[in-house]
Specification:
By secondary structure, the chain is of the alpha/beta class. Helix content is about 50%, strand content about 15%. It has an 8-stranded mixed beta sheet, with helices on both faces. The chain is globular and about 75 Å long.
């Protein structure tokens, strides 16, 4: 029966995407560490000069904290250059930045978006390593040193740090979902990096070899995705160092988080269609496997699966009414639906029992992927991002 086959294919792909791929990566890493001697990265006192690039739009509340945070890095102060781009801010961003004579400030009178700010900044970077970060992302004290270390290997072109979400013992759906999601993503990225290379960096914290940067199209939505994947296309690796992390507050509520997710989804589809060669198994065999497992299935198959699996399950039961297996699978889906509804009802409540929010957050993510896809197709996503409100 065709519907039965499709049911199990979709269910299998869903389970593989969320669990199977992770388990397979863990197995590969285990075998690699067992069969090969792990080569450590030799430490050196000859640390390279680096430039921290920050694109800022109306960041008056974060400037002081970010500047101090950068100065507190466990890295030679004379080897760090701070380069900020004031992207047409209408608050006191320019005035506050001008108070620090050791910071290079570039002013864009008209707001053009983050990617335009980065393109402008990179024309003024003279150090061999560039570190990108956001104004509201506070770095761990050793973040820059840890990001720089993997560049001792010539085949490394980009190093990504970890994004962490500040969480309290009691949280709402947005903070819980975002926090758990990034811990899960971090685990997968580390496994990918240990296998060979992770797929992309996050804008809160990543570094590249400056010489590898190429000007990015001005209508680019996700600068971090495009810049890091452009390095993959050069045959170089993107390494992931979770010990180097950037911490920021969670979205204020689920609506603000959904707004962010829709934008990320639109940008992800844009990046995918600009980098189709990474899906060529003859040119990039392992990267293709990673992109299909980590990205393509999540973006295309999973949202479809959440709709079709229950429909197929019901159709199968209409024919095989006494089949215990399909009664059980339908009951599990009904329980998940109840959990999603419960999470939706409680989404703005702060609770210590955080697992209640996870089914609803995953459902919201998949809805956002669908909305982001249509926004990408219609070319409706503005590169000048309206920032999500964050918890204070």
């Amino acid at each position: 029966m065709l519907i039965t086959i499709l049911f199990w294919i979709l269910l299998g792909l869903l389970l593989y995407s969320y669990f199977g791929y992770t388990m397979l990566l863990a197995l590969i890493v285990y075998c690699k560490k067992t069969l090969l001697l792990k080569k450590g990265i030799s430490s050196t006192n000859d640390l390279p000069d680096i430039t921290i690039v920050v694109a800022a739009y109306n960041e008056e509340q974060n400037i002081l904290y970010k500047v101090i945070n950068s100065l507190q890095q466990d890295y030679p102060k004379d080897k760090i250059t701070q380069l900020w781009v004031n992207d047409g801010s209408t608050d006191k961003t320019k005035v506050l930045l001008d108070e620090y004579p050791f910071i290079k400030v570039l002013n864009q009178p008209e707001r053009k978006g983050k990617i335009a700010a980065i393109n402008l900044a990179m024309q003024h970077v003279t150090t061999p390593i560039t570190v990108f970060s956001d104004a509201n992302a506070m770095l761990s004290a050793n973040a820059i040193r840890l990001l720089v270390e993997p560049f001792s290997k010539k085949n490394v072109g980009c190093v990504a740090g970890e994004k962490r979400i500040s969480m309290n013992s009691i949280e709402n759906a947005a903070a819980t979902g975002e926090g758990v999601y990034w811990r899960y993503e971090s685990f997968i990225k580390k496994l990918e990096s240990d296998c060979s290379s992770t797929l992309s960096a996050t804008g809160e914290l990543y570094a590249i070899r400056t010489e590898l940067f190429e000007s990015v199209d001005s209508n680019t939505i996700l600068d971090d995705f495009i810049i890091s994947t452009s390095i993959l296309k050069k045959g170089l690796l993107v390494k992931y160092v979770p010990e180097a992390y950037a911490c920021e507050s969670a979205s204020a509520n689920i609506n603000e988080e959904k707004k962010r997710k829709v934008r990320i989804a639109a940008g992800s589809f844009q990046a995918l269609f600009r980098n189709m060669e990474l899906l060529n198994p003859f040119k990039h065999p392992f990267l293709t496997f990673q992109f299909i497992s980590h990205k393509i299935l999540r973006w295309f198959i999973l949202p479809l699966s959440l709709i079709l699996i229950p429909v197929f399950n019901i159709l199968i039961l209409l024919v095989e009414k006494q089949n215990i297996l399909y009664i059980l699978t339908l009951m599990i889906q009904i329980l998940m639906l109840i959990a999603i509804i419960l999470g939706w009802i409680l989404k703005d409540k702060r609770l210590s029992t955080k697992w209640i929010f996870l089914p609803y957050y995953l459902f919201m993510m998949n809805i956002s992927i669908v909305q982001g896809f249509f926004r990408f197709v219609r070319d409706e996503q503005n590169v000048k991002w309206d920032k999500s409100l964050r918890q204070t």
